Each structure stands twice: as structure tokens, then as C-alpha cells.
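Subject: Sanity check before I submit

Could someone independently write out the C-alpha cells for this chain? I want to compare against mine line by line before I put it in a report. The sequence has 186 residues.
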Amino acid sequence: MFGQHDTLLDLLARRSAKRGEFTLSSGKRSTLYIDARLTTMSPEGLALIGPLALGAIRGAKWDVDSAGGLTLGADPIAYAIAYASALPGAGPLVRAFTVRKEAKAHGTGKLIEGPYNAGDHVVIVEDVITTGGSALRAAEAVKNAGGRISGVLALVDREEGGREAIEATGLAVLSLTRAADIIQRL
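---
Independent answer below. Compare away.
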């Protein structure tokens, strides 16, 4: 997996990381912007992220039924995890779900979409953790829908306090990469 991890870092640095002056979704200002979707929505990114993320979940001994988080950043990562779980020898299947930013005003009015079930053991997925707000919002929706959260898995930890904010609520956090590792490759 080490080679795959290096390849993922190279992809993130080459495709997703930008230097300049940016305002992040959290409202914070930064000289580093990581648009993880440029990696997570690519064939190569999906092929790397699924097995790496599933391996991290299994390595943490999180026995999960489903994986998902706040749309849009978490979606391709959750789908990659679900797909990787269906590969030969991957172990139990993990279903993917999406947490909407607000419940639909029509149809069933769901906040959580996909094959999520109340009582599921869940990993909350996040593309980039800055403040932890998106992961905590998704975790609240899952808890309110009867889910049991095993932890939070992030593709990138910006190392700006988000991990600590999530851990302060009692949730464990894993990250596949850190901003510092990506910066070294720019």
C-alpha cells in the first residue's frame, strides 16, 4: 500500500493543490487550496482511494456497514470505498450513502440518500478537513437517523484544528494524507 499512498500524494499535489490567496468553505483565508474533487473524481484517484480508505477502515478495526458524508466532497470517496469492498477478498461489503445539505422538499424528504439503514455502523467520510464542520454536520444527521458512528475518515487533514474539533466530540479520526505531505510534493 505504501506505493499506492505515494501515488495518491503525487496525484493530490499535481491535480488538487494550488498556491495563491483563497477563501476556504470554512471562511478561513489560506495560501493553499486543495480541490480534492480533481483527484477523487478521476479514474486513477477512485482506484487508489477506495482500497486505501477501506484498508485504513479495516486497519482501525472499524466494523462498518456503510460510509458517507456531506455531499459533494464525500460522495466519490464513499462510492470508491463501497466499490473496493466488493472486490474479491475485500471482506464484508460497505454500502455508500450521501448526506444532503438540507432535506428534500419533495418526494420522501430524505436528508440521507442511498442504502443507509438506521442502526448501521458508519464511517463518516470527508474529502478535506479544515475546521471539521462538514464532518460534524454529517455525523449529526447520521446520529439523528439512528446510525452508530465508528469514526471519521478524511482524504486530507489540513492540520488546522479540524481533527481536534472532531475528536473533542468523542469521534476518532483517520486521514489518508496531510496537507504537509502534499506541500512537500508541490
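---
OP: Matches mine. For the report I'm noting this point. The mean pLDDT is 95.
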